[in-house]
Amino acid sequence: MSFENSNNNNSSNSIGNSKSNDTVEKEKERLRFIISQYFQQITKGCGEKISHHSEYCCHNPNFQKILDPTQAAMKSLKLGKDYQEKYLCSYLYSSTAEKLIITNRYMKTLVDLSSNAKNYSNIVDFIVNYFSTPSSIITSFKSEKKQDYDDETYFEGLDINDINQIFSLLTGLNNKKVDESLKSATRLLSNNLKYNSVSYKEKEQLKPLVFLLANDFIHDLDNRTILSNVFVAFSLLQDPMKDVIIKWYNSLSKEYFIKTIINYEQFISVRIMSDEVDLHKDPAIKGACSALQLLSKINDLKRYVPFTDFYNDAINEDLDLFKDFNQANHSFTYANFPCVLNTITKGQYLQIEHALSQNNHRTDFGRLGLTSALDFLIFKIRRESIITDTLDRIAELRHGKNEFKKELKVHFIGEEGIDEGGVKREFFQLIVRRIFDPEYGMFKYNNETRCFWFNPDSEDLTEFQLIGILLGLALYNNIILDVHFPLVIFKKLLNLPLSLEDIESLDPTLFSSLMNVKTTTEEVEYWSLYFSVDYESFGQTKTFNLKKDGKDIPVTNENREEYLQLYVDYLLNKSISSQFKAFYIGFKLVCDSTILNILKPEELSNLVCGVEDLNFDELELFATYEGGYTKDDTTIKNFWKVLHSLSDEDKKRFLTFVTGGDRVPYGGLGKMEFTITKTADSDRLPSAHTCFNTLILPAYPGIDKLRDLLTKAITHYEGFGLK
Q: Region entry Disordered: which residue ranges (predicted)?
């Protein structure tokens, strides 16, 4: 399964065969449309109001009408196959009739005359003649203003504001025949685009597409059939034509950009919920997703809205993930448009691939369900030497990296118990706690961000590779790790370009200082800054030159951009290059899936580390009870009263007490298994099995005692990550 990097591709991604069955069928459908147009021309005439008709049209005096339907069908077939749309009258726009320039002022005059006469037949005829073909849109709707750039009001001479005013004027008549003619004409136009956009090669040919896309009229839900044709046409555009649309999208104001996203998202949701389409086959939804993906690329740079605004709930709820995953190598997958997929859906893609991979790395008997030790990656570990034993085990496996693709099982030597998931979770909790202990020296802790960063002084690269492998194994085996990394680490894992803004998640104070250098109107040369960085290493102050002889080159307003770029590269790359390289290699030994390419750094972080969620109403709703407790027991009711009354900090302490960390799987507490088990000894403190998310709660006789002992338990438990 191959997923192109969604973060580095300006056009829509492509997965599967270069010419799928779906594409071939669309080409056949387009050819049938062209042939039907030729058949009408040579038997009845085109019906176009143009002065120079095609040489293959009944309206051309030099053409002899073909009366025999069979002969006409054969001639239409030949014209369609040999010439495509070349001789269709709808593509000939050199006539005098089409040189009429249609503006809102012109239409207002026509409307006034018709209104005075109380006869709108002229308007109906006008709409039919000038709103229904690409040629009439291209030649007749021309702006009276001239500008050298396209934006939300202007595209290649098309005055978008004027067009919307025209439609408002016509729909404001509240005349049924006028409304019907508008719908009919724009439906014909959209149908034409649907079948012919694949052949567009000139920017001018896109004017009818923008005429509709930017038109408030077709974004009315009653007209979504028209919009569906437009989105199909959009999806069939060749990449050079999509690049033109991208450029136009890029010119939109923030307000119009957001409005466009809302319109497209609304179309998808309503079509799924109201039109009962097959999500996996509907070309209109695919086209809308293609357009949203392009908008998402622009938003990545302009940051008009959070990337989560592109998520489409209807798609994520209706999508058959297994069907979509299995057809990815054959035709189409929604993973081509990751902007509309939420983190849960993307995480499920990974889980499916990882489960299949684990199964593929089993023995023949293991695939049949008859598993043995050979089917698993087994870590036999002593608690007292957990890091040493894990390093030794990884060293054994390093040259046979396929071993990491097996499902992980952990056994603590000298202890009973089968690893059904709980032992594995406890293993990760223990080893992560040890490795990230500041005294261990591998990582530095930032009190402001509560995040860890690579220690440049730590030179044991084997252990950095270990933590990379552990991160990969946790993701591969669907385990949440209680690690606190700045977002920039996940950007680096996804090979995304870094910028000055990425320092904020690492060191907000330093980021603020650098931004001051970037934005100040003062003369920076008086700040005594040079192209060098002083840093502490083993108790000594050292200097790193950002460029040759940098310590002697002052920073000025003229060269500060270069200084900031070099500083970012030093801090986020060069200063930790050997440590991160080892960490990255370790991670990729386990997780090299191309599905990672569809993830945002924030989404990868959420899948690896979980999310902060203190919605304990969800926790209560999905909690289960054992040992004799039910949700109606007095102790349980008291417990939830106490828990809901805790401060946010104490709620985090409770989560750490019960689960080993204060973060939960993406999707929130409702996605986390949580069990409360009864014990009769009411003088004991509550306890927990963190590897099973289980709270051992004594049957306390009153709420005051429960509050007192629960508070003591979570306060005196020093969980990792609580500083």
A: 1-22
Which distant-in-sequence residues (6+ apart) come within 8 Å of 634 by Cβ?
Answer: none
pTM of the model: 0.81
Q: How far apart are CA 415 and CA 567, in angstroms?
A: 51
Long-range contacts of 56-60 (CB under 8 A, 24+ apart): 56/87, 57/89, 59/89
The reported pLDDT for the residue numbered 41 is 87
Residue 382's pLDDT band (boundaries 50, 70, 90)?
A: very high
State the pairing for strand pair 532-537/154-155: unpaired
* pLDDT tens-digit series, residues 180-211: 999 999 999 999 999 999 999 999 999 999 99
Q: Which residues are catalytic?
A: 691
Backbone angles phi, psi at 60, to 5 degrees: -85, 120
Secondary structure of residue 26 in the 3-state scheme: helix
State how far the Cα of 720 lies from the Cα of 483, in Å rounded to an integer.
9
| In contact, 205 and 238? CB cutoff 8 Å | no
* Helix spans in 275-385 (H): 283-302, 313-318, 321-326, 343-360, 364-367
For 106-116, the pLDDT digits (tens) are 889 888 888 87
Nearest partner of 431 among 469, 460, 475, 401, judged by Cα = 469
Residue ranges and CATH numbers for the domains of the chain are 25-91 (no CATH), 100-222 (no CATH), 252-340 (no CATH), 342-478+580-606 (3.90.1750.10), 499-572 (3.30.2160.10), 616-716 (3.30.2410.10)
pLDDT tens digits for 391-444? 899 888 877 668 899 999 999 898 876 666 778 888 888 898 888 888 888 999
Rounded to whole angstroms, what are the CA distances from 151 to 101, 157, 264?
21, 11, 18
